[in-house]
Specification:
Layout lengths: L7 H27 L5 E10 L4 E12 L3 E3 L1 H9 L3 H18 L6 E5 L2 H5 L3 H12 L6 E5 L2 H5 L1 H13 L3 E7 L5 H7 L4 E4 L1 H5 L4 H17 L3 E3 L5 H9 L4 E3 L13 H4 L18
Parallel strand pairs: 2-4, 4-5, 5-6, 6-7, 7-8, 8-9
Antiparallel strand pairs: 1-2, 1-9, 2-3
Bound molecules: ligand C2E and magnesium ion (3 copies).
One magnesium ion (MG) binds next to β6.
Length: 286
């Protein structure tokens, strides 16, 4: 909608900007129908201890748009976060993931990501409590992943909500650790149960800076008595490094990609043969 009398620059940028805004508005509108039309689904990515045993899964949201196909969460979550849609979607994910995990024969954990919006507007502690009761999932098997952005806006309120959730027996993990501004001070303000080392550091294992940072975070975990999980582990070299450094847990394409849970039926186990089916891969000697 470039102005007829516009100068060259405005004319050059406006059509693209306009297109982008229209796209965004269209996606926001489509997203409103996504839950009721069953376009949202959850894939599950295994988390393993360093010896290779699957200990749980992270629930990751997917949107299969009727005409555009799969739209990644990095695109649609920020759009959902601009309105109360994120509250509704977040609630749906939590309920679905807990219902799913409650049906697994092995007592594996399930990790669910929370948006900062759910802290600001939702009645989060009451929601978690009622979902646990409704689904029958043991609170100890639920882990909620938050990033430090949750703590930035209203630290007091977030800490109080997290405290109530923790009191239910649910664990709280700090996601994407090391990518924010003051992760260390947040570790002091709230008793997290796990730290997830961001995949950007894991990707660069082999460069001395990233190796040093990972070592330091693992040391921090040991000092604080917190388990550390490395995200984005794709290669055996990365795994060997993490094993040598005594990282506690790993998650990444090497262990398994995010997939429909039916693809992981053997890890979830059958009641009878839980024992021998738990291992994802042979242990690797560092
Ligand atoms: P996240 O919570 O840090 O999730 C990890 C992301 O890394 C996932 O991307 C996962 O598919 C990807 N990943 C896992 N292993 C590897 C690997 O070995 N290599 C590479 N390159 N990537 C790997 P995904 O599923 O696209 O999700 C992106 C982000 O969207 C998540 O980051 C999370 O912040 C957000 N998200 C996803 N589902 C939900 C949800 O249900 N609620 C909320 N609030 N956020 C969600
Ligand atoms: Mg996460
Ligand atoms: Mg992460
Ligand atoms: Mg992330």
């Amino acid at each position: 909608r470039a102005k007829a009398d516009g100068r060259g620059t405005a004319r050059f940028f406006e059509p693209q900007m306009d297109k982008w805004l229209r796209e965004r508005r269209a996606l926001q509108r489509d997203l409103q129908a996504a839950i009721s039309q069953q376009q949202l689904s959850i894939v599950y990515q295994p988390q393993a201890d360093i010896g290779g045993d699957v200990i749980g899964f992270e629930a990751l949201l997917r949107w299969n748009h009727p005409t555009r196909g799969n739209i990644p969460p990095s695109v649609f979550i920020p759009i959902a976060e601009e309105s109360s849609l994120m509250i509704e979607i977040g609630e749906w994910v939590l309920r679905e993931a807990c219902r799913e995990a409650a049906a697994w024969p092995r007592k594996l954990s399930v990790a669910v990501n929370l948006s900062p919006v759910q802290f600001k507007h939702g009645d989060l502690d009451r929601l978690v409590k009622s979902v646990l009761i409704e689904t029958g999932l043991e609170p100890e098997r639920l882990e909620l992943e938050i990033t430090e952005s949750v703590l930035i806006d209203d630290l007091e309120r977030a800490i109080s909500t997290l405290g109530h959730v923790k009191a239910l027996g649910v664990r709280i993990a700090m996601d994407d650790f090391g990518t924010g501004y003051s992760s260390l001070s947040y570790l002091q303000s709230f008793p997290f149960d796990k730290i997830k080392i961001d995949q950007s550091f894991v990707r660069n294992i082999g460069l001395s800076q990233s190796s040093a940072i990972i070592r330091a975070v693992i040391g921090l975990g040991r000092g604080l008595d917190l388990p550390i999980i490395a995200e984005g582990v794709e290669s055996t070299d990365q795994l060997a490094f993490l094993t040598r450094e005594s990282c506690d847990q790993v998650q990444g394409y090497l262990v398994g990609r995010p997939r429909p849970i039916s693809d992981y039926a053997k890890y979830v186990g059958r009641a009878e043969d839980v024992e021998q089916l738990a291992r994802v891969r042979p242990a690797i000697s560092a």
